[in-house]
Specification:
Layout lengths: L2 E6 H13 L10 E3 L2 E6 L7 E4 L33 E3 L2 E4 L9 H11 L5 E9 L4 E9 L4 E6 L2 E6 L10 H10 L5 E4 L6 H9 L4 E5 L3 H14 L4 E4 L16 E4 L9 H7 L3 E10 L3 H14 L4 E13 L2 E10 L1
Helix pairs in contact: 3-4
The chain binds S-adenosylmethionine.
Length: 334
């Protein structure tokens, strides 16, 4: 029988990440929700945690062994050259794949659909571009559409991949931040996209007000739709340049989310000059060997604005390139 570590709900996400980093999670079983406690599947009993055996737990359904690359439609000579994985957004699969495979796009798309029963559309990801961070996409297989409904942690998200940025890889971050928000907090989501941070916060915390801002009117329309779809009452969608957004806030934020990883740092002085005491979650792409330098740079920006900074956490997220990764620097401006 598989083992589960019994963890208080408030600690569950932190412990899950720690166990994941240490390679101790049993990926074959699903996490069990037991109200105030969460059971995290582990490979073996772990010192320091109460561990229990659970009969008849839910198993994680794995895609067909070897994934789409082992589908009969894929020539054997291509199998090891094709990307192992792809993102799934609602019922759309988005795959980064080179032009050299163009003659096989339709077969690859069909193989993905046939090895993943939830996928109805396959799109080729040609990169994220511009201020709005829109993905350049090419239809590969299935219905020709770019919008879908994605769900993460029970949050419903209407997504239109041609109208606004969205990545399913940030689900854990959306949830992590939501669980940090204290009762009555005023939150500013400066670069909200379709609103996943804001709506997750509204759903999983007792925040006072959450301002969900994005300069892209396509994102703004989707935030409004997602507010409605989730029945949350305290999210205020805004469609402004983040440089101007403090002018319209009725209350100063206690927490600011800056998820515009290619350009967050340039907006930091605006935050530092406008907030009182405030927690910031600043996302950035950082070279793997320059993490300390990045933290020093952030400190420099804050101190140049006449403020001081208290570091809370530097979270290393997924790789962006062989030498760099997405990070989230959590800190307090004092
Ligand atoms: C990485 S995406 C945000 C993703 C979103 N937070 C999420 O978790 O899905 C960055 C967003 O910043 C927005 N953006 C870029 N420059 C901006 C600005 N000056 N003011 C407000 N939003 C901006 C883009 O339109 C884009 O939607």
């Amino acid at each position: 029988m598989p083992y589960f570590a019994v963890v208080a709900r408030k600690d569950a996400e932190r412990v899950r990440k720690q166990l994941m980093d240490e390679g101790k999670i049993n990926g074959g079983c699903k996490i069990i929700d037991k109200g105030n406690f969460v059971y995290i599947p582990v490979k073996e009993p772990i010192n320091g945690y109460k561990c229990v055996e659970v009969n008849n737990c839910d198993r994680v359904r794995r895609p067909r062994k070897g994934g789409y690359r082992n589908h009969p439609l894929i020539p054997a000579s291509l199998r090891n050259k094709l990307p192992r994985s792809y993102d799934i957004i609602g019922d759309i699969a988005v795959i980064k794949i080179g032009e050299e495979f163009a003659e096989h796009f339709s077969a690859i798309g069909k193989a993905i659909v046939e090895t993943n029963k939830n996928v109805k559309v396959v799109l080729r990801d040609k990169g994220v571009k511009g201020v709005y961070r829109l993905r350049e996409l090419e239809h590969m297989y299935g219905e020709c559409r770019y919008s879908t409904i994605h769900k993460e942690y029970g949050v419903i998200l209407h997504v239109d991949l041609r109208a606004a940025y969205f990545s399913p890889r940030l689900a854990g971050e959306h949830y992590r931040i939501a669980k940090l928000v204290g009762d009555g907090e005023i939150v500013l989501d400066m670069f909200a996209g379709v609103g996943p941070f804001s709506i997750m916060i509204a759903k999983y915390s007792n925040a006072g007000v959450v301002y969900a801002n994005d300069i892209n009117s396509g994102a703004y329309e989707l935030v409004k739709k997602n507010v409605e779809a989730n029945g949350v009452k305290n999210v205020i969608p805004l469609n402004m340049d983040a440089k101007e957004v403090f002018k319209v806030l009725e209350e100063l934020p206690n927490r600011v989310i800056m998820n515009n990883p290619h350009n967050s740092l340039s907006f930091l002085p605006i935050v530092a000059k406008n907030v009182a005491s405030c927690v910031v979650h600043l996302y950035a792409i950082v070279e793997n060997d320059a993490l300390n330098k990045f933290c020093d740079e952030v400190r420099g920006v804050i101190e140049n604005c006449g403020r001081s900074i208290e570091a809370i956490n530097l979270i290393k997220l997924h790789p962006y390139s062989p030498n760099s990764r997405l990070v989230c620097y959590d800190f307090q401006i004092l």
